[in-house]
Structure formats: structure tokens, C-alpha cells
User: What shape does this take?
Amino acid sequence: MIPIVPATDRTPTAFLEAYPSFASTRALDELRAAEYPALDRQGHTYLDFTAASLYATSQLDRHMALLRTTVFGNPHSTNPTSSTATEYVARARRAVLRFFNAPADEWAVIFTANASHALKLIGESYPFGAGDRFLLTFDNHNSVNGIREFARSAGATSTYVPVVLPDMRVDERDLMRELEDVRPGHHHLFSYPAQSNFSGVQHPLAWAAAARAKGWHVLLDAAAFTATSRLDLARCGADFVVQSFYKLFGYPTGVGCLLARKTALETLRRPWFSGGTITVASVQGDKYYLAEGESAFEDGTLDFLSLPAVEIGLQHIESIGIDVIHERVRCLTGWLLHELLALRQVNGAPLVRLYGPPNTDRRGGIVTFNFYGRDGRAIDHRLVEQRANAATMSLRTGCFCNPGGGEIALGLTGTELSSCFRQPEHQTHMTVDDFKLCIDGKSTGAVRVSLGLVSNEADVGRFIAFARGFIGQ
Ligand SMILES: Cc1ncc(COP(=O)(O)O)c(C=O)c1O
Assistant: This one.
């Protein structure tokens, strides 16, 4: 439950009284000053941690020192520089397994370019066939939605389970009904995000074990979850888990991973082979043999110079403690929600309409909403973004690559969307303005504020002051 803070009293003292445990995260204020100096020196209000976390200067220093003092060759050979690179890749794999408490005999770490690449590996390799099922929540990133195209072309059926306003959670009866529909002899893949990148809802991790017990493979999108919440794979029933490391610790970009249960990995069928994924391939014999385990999924040369920075980044988070980060973000999110929901437009109506839970129960540090004007209509999210930009404030607007979340939040129905997409002029092309016209002037997007490891009270305070600027508009 959210502690009661009088809406009129917006001093940090009131915040600290409402969230006394915030004091236990004070080390992060010192860390922000010492290790993230550009943030305050350049006057940024950074409220876009779900899009990308920020990196500490010590991460860069350690990585650069390693590159300066070590000779790395392309892995996959026995020569000395190659062996060094191979050892650092292996270290990064071990660090990932350790961080997520994934037993090494049960889980494989496949390094990818990002979470989307990891999801595509599943989409193209899952043995979808006629009569198979792909089940997913409305609330999913487009890189999960895109898997339905692999399912479609193989003749499998895709089914979406809705999320329900105002909290944007799934009605578990709907989900369980779908999970019960298991067809003997067929493949079943269920995918959902551990945390919504739209509403911040944390969908139950317990679904994974429940679905698996009924015969489903479970693909958990952890991309928006792991930066501020602990994921313990020894206790999680998922088969496949995807992430992008820049979302956890800012640097490096261009590296993500697919964590896969080894038993589930065996069911995947790669549609091609490439350098690095085979033991033997022959031109004249027209034959190839895939390598075992993760090697079969890592096409070509890994980003071997960046991988040591993954180990460094994970150590950075471990040195702070993921539970400390979680607590800090929980406190700030609770305060942000309370202050934002207390604001009133001049007509007496709430200034914002929130899409997601109004308190800190089973949610992360993502707060998504629209401002409403004195005329009772939503204020265009693009205007909000322009004003935020002018205030050196980084937030995000639109639907965040999560159209299912957006459609539910903004009340767009399947019927109106289909009739819009069927219009001849919209067969192949549509701008945001076309779309807005097509759906009769309804909002096409929302405003998202997301908090992370070095967010502080001042960031939230500046955002609330910015929000007050819409009163009377
Ligand atoms: C929940 C979720 N899944 C997947 C992705 C895709 O991540 P990437 O763009 O790094 O591939 C994102 C990115 O925002 C996300 O928030």
C-alpha cells in the first residue's frame, strides 16, 4: 500500500517520512555524484531508464584499462591472443549465470546483439507447425509480437490474452483457460514480459512454472525487469529469457543474451548455419553438423571486445546490490505516483490519466499516463515531449513499441483499427498524423517516465514541477 503523504506537502521531508527505507539507499547519491558526473553537470533530468540505463565512469575505466593492457584476438582458435579472448567470453558467460543464479548444468547463455535478436532466434528456431500454438499477452514488446509472423508462416495459431484497465494486468482466468488448451503432439509457446515496458506492471513469474507444468515452453521477456528487480533463474520456471545489457548498466550497447534451459534448447531448430555455429560443413558433400549448445546459436564472431564490459557491468550492479536499487526505485515511484495523481486541472478533474497500477504493489519504476487539458481532452503527447526536451528532461512518448498495451490504454478497438488499416490509401503507408485522423482524433500515444538506479528525489521533484505547467492548458 502507498503511504499517505498530504498532497499539499511536497517537501523531501514528507517523502522521507513516507518512505523511511529510502535512507538505506543513500550510497546511490554518493555514487551518482562520483560516477555519473555528466548527469548533473549538464543539468539533465533523466527519466528514460527503461529505454537505456546509464553507465558509471568506473565501468568505462576498467574496460578501457583492460583493452589497453591486453591483446585480444578473434576467439575460436588456440593461438594465445585468441585464447585470451575465448577466456574472457567464458568469464562473461559465467558472470551472467552467476548474476541470475542460473545453475550452469541447466542453463546456457547465448550472446546476442540485444533482446530483439534473442527473440528473433526463438522465433526462427521454434519448431512451429500446423496446429501448434503461440500464446502471448497483449502487453508485449513488438520484438515478441513479431514472433507471430514466424508462427503464421508455419501454420501455427497465435492467440493474445488481454490486459485490463485501469491496472493493465491480465485476468488470470483468461490466461489459465488458454493455458489449458494443450493439443497432444503439438508445440506450445507462451510469451510474456516480466515487467511491462508500457505500464510498469510486473506480471507474475509464477505463470512460467504453471504454464510449463501444462506442457508449454515459456519465453520470458526480462528486458524491462532486470535493471531494478532480482531475477532468480533457479526459482523461475521459464525456458527462455531475453535481455539487453545496456538496460541493466548502460554500457556496453550492442550485447544482449538469450538464457535458455538446456533441455528446451534441444527443441529449437536453426533455419541455417553460419561461421561459428557448426562442427563440420561441406560444400561438395552438401552437409553440415551444428555445434552443441550455445555455439549453434551464435552466428559469426561475437562482440568479443565488449563482452568483458558485461562482466564489469554485472559486478558494478552487484557492488551496489540489486535489492538496494529495487528499494530506491520503489520509493521514488511511490512518491511520483502519489504526487502526480494528486494534481488537478483547473476544472477540478485529475490532471493525468494513469495507465497502470496507482501504487507500488507488483510494479516497477515505469509510470505511463496522459495529461488532460481544461477542455477534458488528452494533451497531445508530442507537445509534452517537445516541452520536456526544452527543459532538458529526457522522457519518452508514444506507445514504446508495445502496441497492445497502447491499444488497451487508449481504448482503440480491433474493429476501428482494422477498418483504418483496410482503407486503400493505408495499404502500405501510414504516418502518425494519418493514424490519428483515422482513429477519430483519439490519443495515439502516452507519456512514459521511468526511473533507475541513480534517480533521486530532485528528478522526481523537477518532473512534478514540469507536470504542474500543464494546469490551465
Ligand atoms: C520489454 C522489452 N522487450 C524487448 C525490448 C527490446 O530491446 P532491444 O531494443 O534492446 O532489443 C525492449 C526495449 O525497450 C523492452 O522494453
In short: The pocket of pyridoxal-5'-phosphate is lined by residues 50-51, 114-116, 141, 143, 193, 197, 221, 223-224, 244 (CB under 6 Å). Residues 1-9 have pLDDT under 50 and may be disordered. The first strand starts at residue 45 and ends at 46. The chain has 19 helices and 17 strands.
